[in-house]
Amino acid sequence: MRCYHICKLPGRVMGIRVLRFSLVVILVLLLVAGALTALLPTVKEDKMLMLRREIKSRGKSTLDSFTLIMQTYNRTDLLLKLLNHYQAVPNLHKVIVVWNNIGEKAPDELWNSLGPHPIPVIFKQQTANRMRNRLQGFPELETNAVLMVDDDTLISTPDLVFAFSVWQQFPDQIVGFVPRKHVPTSSGIYSYGSFEMQAPGSGNGDQYSMVLIGASFFNSKYLELFQRQPAAVHALIDDTQNCDDIAMNFIIAKHIGKTSGIFVKPVNMDNLEKETNSGYSGMWHRAEHALQRSYCINKLVNIYDSMPLKYSNIMISQFGFPYANYKRKM
Amino acid sequence: MRCYHICKLPGRVMGIRVLRFSLVVILVLLLVAGALTALLPTVKEDKMLMLRREIKSRGKSTLDSFTLIMQTYNRTDLLLKLLNHYQAVPNLHKVIVVWNNIGEKAPDELWNSLGPHPIPVIFKQQTANRMRNRLQGFPELETNAVLMVDDDTLISTPDLVFAFSVWQQFPDQIVGFVPRKHVPTSSGIYSYGSFEMQAPGSGNGDQYSMVLIGASFFNSKYLELFQRQPAAVHALIDDTQNCDDIAMNFIIAKHIGKTSGIFVKPVNMDNLEKETNSGYSGMWHRAEHALQRSYCINKLVNIYDSMPLKYSNIMISQFGFPYANYKRKM
């Protein structure tokens, strides 16, 4: 009898009951899921860990990509050749070309006519041909990292990929391919030099105290830091049309209280200046260039009333690249 | 009249006044000095900075020196030869020899008869010949750093001096000369290997995820950390008489949440096992040795319910040693 009564009812009543039951089940499941989410442990991450996870999860986000800043003067043939190379480097977000050819139009049209390009390239026309133009705060710059390269320097992609990964582990230092040092003398006057100069202190090997910015990765906030420096520093760079990189090393060493940079030994890095048709051969060929560098060091010590540069003898290479580079030579 | 009155008084009264005046002046100066001291800025130092300053100021203190722990079994001729080398390494505080020759007296008398020695050497007689004896907490150990070396391994002094300086910059990691890696396979089973094994992931070069402790510097508190590990870990090492170094890398990677070690490329490191008269050739010659290492990795993943090892491709060398090692090969 009951069955007849129930069976007579159309699917609608049964349907409603099933529907209600389903809704209740779903609601309960949602509540349980919500409760479980609330119970998940809050992960306490430090900055580096967060950086690494961002890197893994966000592809080419502004945390795991970098902006190439390349200043150029009178070597447009080299510039365009280099842009063709750098535009395809992994993790590159954007290129900012600091166009120091005053009065001459930047090659935007030529660039666009030869598109499409993997990433945006911005040509920033400058009002005066200043060395420190490349250290401005660029509104177009979105990434935490800057790759700064001179307009005659070709750095291989494996070198860049590796050095960027090293910078990500040491984001407060200049991670680059060209080490230099200051040398103290008994008179208290400093000299600027490269490998061949007397290494300070005793012990084996050599030391460096600067990593030149013209082939390096560094934190983009250091551009703002540079802007905030005493006018005397900017004036020194303008007077010499030199030493912006020495100044940056002073500023960063002073800021972080340790050595300003880490040297990564390049596997494949070349200077293309001999290949330019412009006849222009770069600032470092000026007769007074090296002496100016020593001059700048002593002027900066004077301005900051201290010698903040610190020595390091850490040389980083990529394990296993070139193949078997960890093996000893027989 | 006044003068006469005053002049008549003996030096005593004038003396008292001068005395009082002097005391007041001294008190005032002390108060001012005290106030100035209170006003001095409190220097907020991070651990590394403190470490560096300690290093500069305290000579061979327990912050800037290390303890050599060398475990030995059946190779006393090599041991003594090596001790003659290591005893003179700069910044060495003390040597602890873990004497695994059960029933055989340690060569204390011989050692003492050939004194004086630059540093103390303690021979610790063991009750059983266990691989993990060298990972005990030794009461004689006073330094923050341990240098752990196998009793057949000769590491040159420049290599040690440099690697120690690197450890001081990365005191939470194993800084050593022998890199190894774990290799994941599609089955989820791991394998243990050296350079020749397939590098995980894409890109150039190789990776390592372990730095073997038998030629390395690490923080002495990791010995306590090892003692606190699950009994299953100790049992694994006892069963295999192997893998204490793999376990240490697991433990440290898990503890610090990043790669357990940093590889420093040795310039001059040799294995002397062929030179022993004992006929004993070391554990790694056992047929099952390499397979045991893979076995240990998978057992440890099981025990810890995770794979904490992390890859790195950072290879550190000493800038300028050997001479001009920063130059590219032509």
Count of discrete domains of chain A: 1
Q: Distance N terminus to C terminus of chain A? A: 99 Å
Helix content of chain A: 25-40%
Class by alpha and beta content of chain A: alpha/beta
Strand order of the largest sheet of chain A: 3-2-1-4-10-6-11-13
What is the overall number of helices of chain A? 10
CATH architecture of chain A: Alpha-Beta Complex
What is the level 1 CATH name of chain A?
A: Alpha Beta
The quaternary organization reads as: homodimer
CATH evolutionary superfamily of chain A? Spore Coat Polysaccharide Biosynthesis Protein SpsA, Chain A
CATH-derived topology of chain A: Spore Coat Polysaccharide Biosynthesis Protein SpsA, Chain A
- How many beta strands in the DSSP annotation of chain A? 13
Q: How much of the sequence of chain A is in beta strands?
A: 15-25%
Main sheet overview of chain A: 8 strands, mixed
Question: SSE string of chain A, helix = H, strand = E?
Answer: HHHEHEHEEEHEEEEEHHHEEHE
Average pLDDT value of chain A?
A: 88
Which chains have the largest interface?
A-B, 39 and 38 residues
Instruction: Please tell me what the overall shape of chain A is.
Output: globular
Rg value of chain A: 29 Å
* Unreliably modeled segments of chain A: 53-59
